[in-house]
Amino acid sequence: MRRLHTTWAPRRLIALVVTGLVVGSGLAVGAPAATAAGDFYTPPAQFDTDPGAVIRSEPSPLLLQIPGVPNQWPGTATRVMYTSSYQDGKPAAVTGTLVEPTAPWQRGGKRPTVVLGPGTVGQGDQCAGSKMMNFPLAIDPAKPSIAVNYTALELNLLLINGVRVFITDYIGMGTPGVHTYVNRRESGAAMLDGARAALRLAKAGDDAPVGFSGYSQGGGAAASAAEMAQTYAPELNVKATYAGAPPADLAKVTQQIDGTFIAGAIGYAINGLAARYPSLQPVLDRETTATGRRVLSQVATQCIGDTGLAFGFQRTNQWTRTGESLSAVIDRSPAAKKAVDEQRIGRLTPNAPVLLEGGISDDVIPYGQVQQLYRDWRAQGADVALVTNEIPPIFPGLVVNHALPMLTTLLPGTQFLLTHFDS
Fold first, then answer.
1. Where are the transmembrane segments (predicted)?
2. Is residue 10 part of a domain?
3. pLDDT over 70 at 166, yes or no
């Protein structure tokens, strides 16, 4: 088990704290979509149900690109609607963005494809990353809503290395229905089917190398894709996965973020679970107050920055009739406890090497449950390594200690993927 040690100069630390507050607090990808893209997100009444089938696609200019001009730096982007599947296996239309790099792949073999899982961006349709690829900051005063596209950091790092990139919006983000935040089965399927759609659009062939990458919510999606690959998409030539700060044990994550700046993200998880487990709704009706129900309703249409500003540092015992935390309510409700337990990552075995990252002082994703995922996979014989980030606590609850490790592990995570594409 490797450990990452980092020394910080004061000026560098201040600059990264500011960046981390913006990135880690989740002012992330979400703003009004262009009118021309409005109908794109409504699936046709009938579509190809084959997993990874491309339902529709259209050009999607990147930042500072001139529409209609070919081969611009750093790549050519295409907005995509593709087929994935819901938790029960029924077909689902999902959107995302494929970016074919301008830079050549120079490390031998076929150009690889990495599917990126965005971190927590919110639950409202306006938060879909594919709606904001052409400008990283947007404000919608009508909602109001504010967003910053931070997926560009990892996207551009991969593109300059000649890697094809596909970024999924996840199920229910932009498209009809509730975004099922941190749903293990649906997020993993969206990543794997995103790989299938990317290979089809690029005409790369089924044997082209594939990798998965993400941090936080994206780390969970990448980890889920890694362990689902051999059963859900065995034809994919998966080479490696980087999963930073994955929420592998939702029960522990819910306890950790209660009372932090992004406490409202617990509402995203509850809304997503209620959409897939009808037995939870009577529990919510019985256990939550009018305030709690209002929070759940409001966060369903927000981006994470909006949620942080509206409900930051609240505790979920303010939302329940008994004054217990939502974690305690879940723990004594068999239906809720079962639903949360089914989101646990680590019960299947990845079929390719995985690099995990966890921060000892991470105030969003508990380090212990990342360690447990590492141990679970190792016990199954998986090829997995763990990088431990030892940045000391900085303003606990402001999610700085969640944001900074994302930045410091970006290069090692990318290098891990590139190295395994060589093999």
1. none
2. no
3. yes
